[in-house]
Amino acid sequence: MPRIVDHDQRRRELAETVWALVREHGVAGVSLRQITERSGWSSGAIRHYLPHREAILMFAAQHIAQRIEARMLGLRRTADVLGDFLNLLREVLPLDSERRAESQVWLAFVGLSISDPGLADTQGVAYRALSEVFREVFEGFAELGCLNHPAPENAAREIQALIDGLNVHLLLNQITPEAAWATVETRVRQLIQPPTDQETT
Question: HTH tetR-type domain: from which residue to which, for each copy (predicted)?
Answer without folding.
Answer: 8-68
